[in-house]
Amino acid sequence: MSQGKAGAVDPRRFFSPDEQAAVAAAARAAEGRTSGEIVPYVVGRCDDYAEAAWAGAALGALLSVGVAATWPLVTDTWAPAGLVWRVLPPLAGAAAGYALTAFVPAVARRLVPAATLDRRAHLRAEAAFLEEEVFDTRDRTGILILLALFERRAVVMADAGIHARVAPGAWDAVVSPLVAGIRAGRPAEALIKAIGRCGDILETHQVTRHPDDHDELTDDLRIRSE
To answer: Residue 91 and residue 57: Cα distance in Å, rounded?
Structure first.
């Protein structure tokens, strides 16, 4: 176990080809009302969370040692003697705990502090903003909507042309239902609705579409495993 990884999530399991097409259609519809350029982006997880894997291994080892130590008391039998009985339980427990964090995202997520999940989701959004060149629009009206499935987090990141008109708190109406949709196992449906809400907010704050506006950033859903 030279390298720990925890909580792998395959984002394509949650977005069928039809749902991906629906996400792109929602982005086109929202952009038809404003000059905003919406970039939908989904990532399976934002980090490998090696610390969660090793925490799972440590907890598994401790639990196994506790079980081995109390076994004679609970069962009123003698524990096997010898080195194997002293060594095998912590090794087996460590392996089981490590495996649980590797294959069960819910277990791994519980071993990572909420503040860490928040921070890594925001860092991944910043990286995606640069990767997709969301800043590269005529009026700086790009907007990234990132879903982090393992973390169960969502981030809306707007460029300067939108930020000048829309207060950061306005995006809470987009983020909160989006997070709820991820937790309910319906991220595609939630993302489509979130894109529509972004269009409403941009229209309300008069991020106006110009007669010569054209699609500067593609509307397709970007899907990344990490």
So the answer is: 9
Residues 159 and 129 in one domain: yes
Residues 124 and 16 placed together within one structural domain of the fold: yes
* Tens-digit pLDDT profile for residues 102-156: 778 888 888 889 999 999 999 999 999 999 999 999 999 999 999 999 999 999 9
Residue-wise DSSP of the chain? --S-------GGGS--HHHHHHHHHHHHHHHTTSS-EEEEEEES-S---HHHHHHHHHHHHHHHHHHHHHHHHHHTSPPPPSHHHHHHHHHHHHHHHHHHHHH-HHHHHHTS-HHHHHHHHHHHHHHHHHHTTTT-STTS-EEEEEEETTTTEEEEEE-HHHHTTS-GGGGHHHHHHHHHHHHTT-HHHHHHHHHHHHHHHHHHTT-PPPTT----S--SPEEE--
Residue 149: both structure tokens together: 């499935």
Q: Has residue 1 been placed in a domain?
A: no
Are 97 and 134 in the same domain? no
pTM: 0.83
153 in the same domain as 73: no
Q: Please check whether residues 123 and 133 belong to one and the same domain.
A: yes
- Cα separation, 30 vs 148, whole angstroms: 22
Could you list the residue range(s) of the whole structural domain that residue 97 is in?
50-110
Q: Does 95 lie in the same domain as 154? A: no
Domain shared by 100 and 142, yes or no: no
